[in-house]
Every structure is written in C-alpha cells, then in structure tokens.
Amino acid sequence: MKRRAWKATAFLAGVSCAMMLGVLPLRAGTGATQENEEDGVTVPQGHKEAYEAAKEQMKEAPQEKHSSGSWFLAGAAGMGWPQADSGSYGNSALGVNQNEVFTGGLQGGYYWHDPDKWGNLSFTAEAIGLYTGASSGMSIAGASGTGGAASGATVGLLGLGGTVGYRIAKSFEPFVGFYGGGAIGQFSNSGLSGSLGTVWGYWFSPAVGMRYFIPNSHWFIGAEALFVFMGDMNGFNKGAQLTSVSGSSYLYEPIVMMTIGYAF
C-alpha cells in the first residue's frame, strides 16, 4: 500500500514538472510581444522601427504658418448731410446747409483677429479716402443764384485711423473707431461768377459700424457711420487772390455708408 502511494506521488510530481516546463516557453513568448511606450504612444515592439520612421517624416513635413491677421481692401458708398456754422463772405452772411450728398471712397489696411491671443477682440489699422460732393444749399446774402442747384461743394478727405471690434458667432462684428487727416474743399456759386476757390483743412471723425464675414470666403460686407468734423475751412484761395471767410470754423457732415471688402 505504501508503495502504491509513493508511486502515485511520484507520478503527480512528474506531471507537475512537465506542466511547468511547458508554461515557461509560453510566458517567454508572451514577454516577446510586450508593448513599449514611445513619446506617450503605446507601440508594439515589432513596430518600433516603423514608428520612428513615421516620426521623422512628420518632423520633415512643412508646418502650416499661423497668422494673426490679413491685409484687406474695401469700397464704400453712402450719403452725407453737411452743414456749417454761420459765417460771412466779406460783408455778406454765409451759410452752408446741404440736404443730401453722395459719399464714396476706399478703405484699406491690416486686420488682426486671433482667438488664441485676444479672444473675440479684433483690431484694424487702415487708410481711408472719401469723396463727398453735390449741389449744396450754400447761401450768401445779396448774391443771386445762391441756395439752389447752381451752388456746389466738393470735398475730398484723406486720413488714417483704426477700429476695435468684437466678433460674435464667428461672422458678426460690431466695432468702434476713429479717423483723421487732411481735407480739401472747393466751393462754387453762380451768383459769384463761378468758383469761390479751394481751401485746405483738416478733419477727424469717430466711427461706429458692423461687419459681416461671409462664411468660407474672403469677402465681408458692412455698414459704417461717421460724424466728420472739418476744420480750417474758412479761407478760399481763388487763384492768386485769397478770399477770407470768417466764422465757419467747422463743416459738419454725418455720413452713413455701406461697405464691401476682401481680405487677402
């Protein structure tokens, strides 16, 4: 009986050893397929060379340049309503009160908008040129033909300025701004034998408006309102003769324009 028990024990021990010897190669094979971690990415050991080659190709690939803004150009057209303080032409009273005049021009400059740096804010630095002119309601006491279609005023404005905007829903952008520069005006009246001459001055204006950026394109449209103050428009140079006009320190002109532009 004891012999049989000993044989059974020896047999079980032999089976256990055989099983252990069979498991060891399996564990070694499993260890051979273990995964390595490269740069935070889990890579099977057999694919390490391919991963390194792909990483080198990514380094050599051209990187897309990040831009915070772009150049733009816009055209503008609208209406203005100029008027001036009371003044005098020699001993005659002078007044300017135009009803509506066409206003057109160009705006161009650089537009900044980078959500990573400034959130919803945007900025522009721009140059502006405006033309405003039509028949005016110029009136000079004692002169015939004044106040009608024969009276005219043509004013050109050139200046620099900028705006600050706030982007809403990726497309709409209300903004405020300020412009200023030089102005040249020419005035005429049939009752005074034609042109009163030209005059140089300066101008400045606050601005408020709205831009709409058309999705998936470079185009934008907008509306802008200015309240232009033109100063030193109080002396008309008619050829070699300087005709003094006193009192009209400023010509005021509210302007409303529609704009359409393209960002490069």
UniProtKB/TrEMBL annotation:
Residues 1-28 form the signal peptide. This is Outer membrane protein beta-barrel domain-containing protein. InterPro entries: OMP/PagP_B-barrel. The lineage of its organism: Bacteria, Pseudomonadati, Verrucomicrobiota, Methylacidimicrobium. It comes from Methylacidimicrobium tartarophylax. It comes from the Bacteria. Keywords: Signal.
